[in-house]
């Protein structure tokens, strides 16, 4: 993978994390820790996801289920718009 492709992938993952953070805040949680604890998620891993570390599809689907969102809903606006 070229550096340019790798940077695009990392930027995309960062944007997905930012969108997940936005969902948490819209749900009334100012703290990622409180959200993670309330939903039986590993705090460190959830923090990594919101901050642009690699996220698995399984983790994304679990988080979206907590927010009653589908993949279609989540990506309907597009991550380029963040």
Task: Present the secondary structure layout.
Blueprint: H1 3-26, H2 32-38, H3 43-50, H4 57-66, H5 71-76
Helix pairs in contact: 2-3
Please describe what this structure looks like.
The protein has 82 residues and is an all-alpha fold. The protein has one domain: lambda repressor-like DNA-binding domains (434 Repressor (Amino-terminal Domain)). It is built from five helices and no strands. It has helices spanning 3-26, 32-38, 43-50, 57-66, 71-76. The model has no long low-confidence stretch (mean pLDDT 89).
Main attributes of the structure:
82 residues; mainly alpha; 434 Repressor (Amino-terminal Domain); 5 helices; 67% helix; globular
C-alpha-based Rg, rounded: 13 Å
Question: Largest sheet, if any?
Answer: none
Order of helices and strands: HHHHH
Question: Given the structure, what is the number of helices?
Answer: 5
Report mean pLDDT, rounded to a whole number: 89
**Roughly what fraction of the amino acids lie in strands?**
under 5%
CATH superfamily: lambda repressor-like DNA-binding domains
> Low-confidence parts, pLDDT < 50 over ≥5 residues?
none
End-to-end C-alpha gap: 25 Å
Shape: globular
Number of domains: 1
The percentage helix is 55-70%
By helix and strand content, what is the structural category? Answer: mainly alpha
* The CATH C-level class name: Mainly Alpha
């Amino acid at each position: 993978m070229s550096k340019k492709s790798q940077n695009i992938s990392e930027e995309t993952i960062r944007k997905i994390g930012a969108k997940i953070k936005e969902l948490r805040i819209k749900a009334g949680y100012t703290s990622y820790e409180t959200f993670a604890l309330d939903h039986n998620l590993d705090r460190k891993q959830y923090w990594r996801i919101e901050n642009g570390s690699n996220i698995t599809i399984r983790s994304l689907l679990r988080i979206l289920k907590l927010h009653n969102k589908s993949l279609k809903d989540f990506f309907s606006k597009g991550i380029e718009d963040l």
